[in-house]
Write a structure and sequence with these properties.
The protein is α+β, with helices and mostly antiparallel strands. The protein has a single domain, classed as 2-Layer Sandwich (Beta-Lactamase). It is 45% helix and 17% strand. The chain has a four-stranded antiparallel beta sheet with strand order 2-1-4-3. It is globular and about 75 Å long. The termini are far apart.
Length: 155
């Protein structure tokens, strides 16, 4: 009887532990470099006058940052803010900008970047990070560059 009870306890413990842990993925430096390469390629092929591109992990920590020649220095900080917003809210930063434009002014107190150009990086239905772009020809081009970077094929 004691052996059966111990076996049941071990089985229950294993089941409980498994039920409480999710499998997660994380952006790697190699993956961030692939995204960056695609984003830079798109920017150059579409005559972006510059741009700062930031890639962050799901916690909003910088994994990779590149500021193209000719881009104003503050674009680096803005791109990080956009990437961080996309990763931590788990949706495009444009959603917050639109909410503010449509009268939800109190969102400016949240402390994140509410400008277009931040897009979450999604792998197997999980947000694993964010990409943010600032300093291209327009806010729309910031978004285009970010989205272009996400066309990479992760293995």
């Amino acid at each position: 009887m004691k052996k059966i009870l111990i076996l049941l306890m071990l089985t229950a413990t294993a089941f409980t532990a498994k039920a409480q842990v999710n499998q997660t993925y994380e952006i790697t430096l190699e993956g961030a470099k692939k995204i960056m390469t695609e984003a830079i390629r798109y920017a150059k092929n579409n005559n972006a006058p510059g741009g700062a591109i930031a890639i962050v992990d799901r916690g909003g920590h910088v994994v990779l940052l590149e500021r193209m020649t000719g881009t104003f220095p503050a674009a680096s900080e803005v791109s990080i803010g956009k990437a961080r917003t996309a990763a931590m809210f788990r949706f495009e930063s444009k959603k917050l900008e639109d909410a503010i434009i449509n009268g939800r002014g109190s969102l400016v107190t949240v402390g994140h970047n509410m400008l277009r150009g931040g897009v979450p990086i999604i792998y197997k239905d999980q947000v694993i990070g964010g990409i943010g772009v600032s300093g291209a020809a327009s806010a729309d081009q910031d978004v285009e560059i970010a989205v272009a970077g996400l066309k990479v094929n992760f293995q």
